[in-house]
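Good morning C.,

I know you're traveling, so I'll keep this short. The sequence:
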Amino acid sequence: MNVSRSDQAPGAAPGAARGPGLRGRAGSLGPVGLVLAGGISVQFGGAVAVSVMPRVGAVGIVALRLLFAALVLLVVCRPKLRGHSRADWGTVVAFGVAMAGMNGLFYQAVARIPMGPAVTLEVLGPLALSVLASRRAVNLIWAGLALCGVFLLGGGGGFDGLDPAGVAYALGAGAMWAVYILFSARTGRRFPQADGLALAMAVAAVLFLPLGITAAGAKLVDPGTVALGAAVAVMSSVLPYTLELLALRRLPAHTFAILMSLEPAIASVAGFLVLSQALSVAEALAIALVIAASMGAVRTQVGRRGTGRGADPVTEAGAGPAATVDPSTDTGAGAGAGAGADAARTPTQP
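The tokens, ready to paste straight into the viewer:
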């Protein structure tokens, strides 16, 4: 996410010095609403993607989503191709590979298990990265809380109620999300504005398009499927990225990260409304525990920075378990919280 903060202290809320019109309750409700709208768009876009899978499969819908998202970002951002070092290109290619892997694994997961549990398991990747990077004993509490949630989600630890392959894919997507966060921050430092995000999305699309053609063939060019694929790309990538970019100009990064921690709950609602995926009481409690652990880890990081201790670069790059924002750089946030989350953002963080 490209959020210029050259005129503010690193920890200040973007836009904090823009005048009284953005202060107080009226000033805070706007960006919060934008973040929530972005999250809703991502998760409902994921639900639409699941409904399209019978036509082209998980690989086909990922290929369409990445292709349309890349085309839009390349047109809007018009990234420069010259003037970059070999290390720059290596970083953006690695970012694109992580993005492709995160999307591919996540969609394979939601093809097998409900969206709420899938997003919850995926969030464990960034949460684990945050806990390990912080090196604070208090984070063991959040890790334990998350493990309790996973235990409940698995129906007592065995995951008898969930497809084992779906669980494995969701955990793999979470691991790729953690890698995505790391390369997102590095890309943001090497490329201006959202150039790195656009180029990485193009890399991901190039990687997945041959797989999509092999898996779905001529079905990929069916007009109805193409329209739905474009809708998924807009809902899961373009619109969330835009909304979150606007929000981050007026919202502290840690607040953004806390709001992003709500995505498993939003995914559960989307799965219920669009796909009729109901949750048991135990599954709902499990998702609540993982959300609480994610929020707790974010607050711990904020408290650490507030004491004046140096922030860990990995933790800072993520600004929390569910964010891909780098508040320490002027050239951008790890290339976009809406990616990864578009990052994400899977249907969702991808």
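Safe travels,
E.
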